[in-house]
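Predict structure. Chain length: 198.
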Amino acid sequence: MRKKIALILVAMMTLGFTGCGDKADSTTENNQRVEETQKEEVAKDAVEILSNVWTTYGEEEKFAAIGGDMEHPVDNAPGAFDISKAEDLDATLGFPQGNVSEIDDAASIMHMMNANTFTGAAYHVTDAGNLDSLANAIKDNILARQWMCGFPDKLIVVQIGEDYLVTAFGNGEIMDNFLTKLQAEYSDSKVLFEEAIH
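Prediction complete.
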């Protein structure tokens, strides 16, 4: 009788440990899935990336800003930019017209008084394989511009996640602050270009 009870107890303990093991494995798998999903979903759209950075600005750091495009402006916040307006993308943000087919979403935020003081943009790149060449095309297009109302000091092009680009040009101090906040908000960000504008 004692042997039967001992065998039953051993069997129950074995099943109990197996159940715990399965639960731990299941929890680990769930955690891995959540981490992978978070890595894949850097942002739901380009506006969210700029908004996440803009909301980290203190009142003393903010400047009069406008987001979006000419037909759909947003006061003091980033806004969506209509990518069907290729000429406006180029004139306003420095995005090359010939590369518009490589993005499916764009957003902007600019200094309201002078876009050369600060102009920031975010783009979702449809094919991550084109990201580096597109970053180069944007950089070259902005550096080749004929500037009016003064020169911006600096240009940055930053990769966020696998398929987003953030670009900005403007006053050196404002640019440094923007880049610091962008990198703090997106720890996986990668600076592709940080160029002085002459």
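Summary: The chain has two domains: 1-41, 42-196.
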